[in-house]
Amino acid sequence: MIGKLTGRLDYRTADHILIDVRGVGYIVYCSDRTLAGLPGNGEAVSLYTDMVVREDLMQLYGFPSLVEKEWHRLLCSVQGIGAKVSLAILGTLGPDGVSRAIALGDWASVKAAKGVGPKTAQRVVLDLKDKAPGVMAMGGTVADAMDGPALDAVEVIEPAPTSKRKTTPKQPSGAAAATAGTLSALANLGYSPSDAAAAVAEAGATWPDADEAELIRQALKLLAPKG
């Protein structure tokens, strides 16, 4: 399985790009939002990838963050959602928008994506609401996961050597770290994952630049009994 590609952006079309990795070209399908955020042709590019293999099909889908990749995987698990519709949802809302819409039960926002009807949007929210806290606690872009701009490399997952150097996974930073920390704090206070995720999603939308302490305060206000 190919989990990440790092190479040079050779060309792009309306729905996919070609990444040149040591002379081998990989066609990678991306959302409109991801395509808009990529560098120019000939420049270095890195994407997490999800590979779909069927009897008559083999395609790679690319994502700038693990959160977006995970939402794609989960969206594709919902009845009536294929890779094309999943990319449309992610392209319309972005991974943070998907997290927020599903955590808050906002199926109308999901319905705004091309090819998504009201019943499908409601099914997405219903099927994935319990998954939102776990995905929201994830974080990290490809840049965060790399020590430097390594060119012309394909990520290969191999068992770690037992007697060699130890590597420590990089932790989420910025907004992702604040979200993860707030969800953990609310869980420790006894709030359910779904209630915590909804509060964090709403607080994060209102105070997008809040640090962890501020996000916890605002989420607790939202969770406080009304009346």
Task: Give an account of the 3D structure.
This protein is an alpha+beta fold. It has 3 domains: 4-64 and 140-155, Beta Barrel (OB fold (Dihydrolipoamide Acetyltransferase, E2P)); 66-136, Orthogonal Bundle (DNA polymerase, domain 1), CATH 1.10.150; 174-221, Orthogonal Bundle (Helicase, Ruva Protein, domain 3), CATH 1.10.8. Helix content is 45%, strand content 19%. It has 10 helices and 6 strands; from the N terminus they run βββαββααααααβααα. It has a 5-stranded mixed beta barrel with strand order 1-2-3-5-4. A hairpin with a 3-residue loop joins strand 1 (4-12) and strand 2. Helix 8 (174-188) runs antiparallel to helix 9 (193-206) and helix 8 crosses helix 10. The longest helix has 22 residues, at 83-104. The termini are far apart.
Task: Quote the beta fraction.
Answer: 15-25%
Please state the second-level CATH architecture of the largest domain: Beta Barrel
Terminal Cα separation, in Å?
A: 53 Å
Report the total helices: 10
* CATH homology superfamily of the largest domain: Nucleic acid-binding proteins
User: What fold name goes in the CATH topology slot of the largest domain?
Assistant: OB fold (Dihydrolipoamide Acetyltransferase, E2P)
Features:
227 residues; alpha+beta; OB fold (Dihydrolipoamide Acetyltransferase, E2P); DNA polymerase, domain 1; Helicase, Ruva Protein, domain 3; 3 domains; 5-stranded mixed beta barrel; 10 helices; four-way junction DNA binding; RuvA; DNA-binding; NA-bd_OB-fold
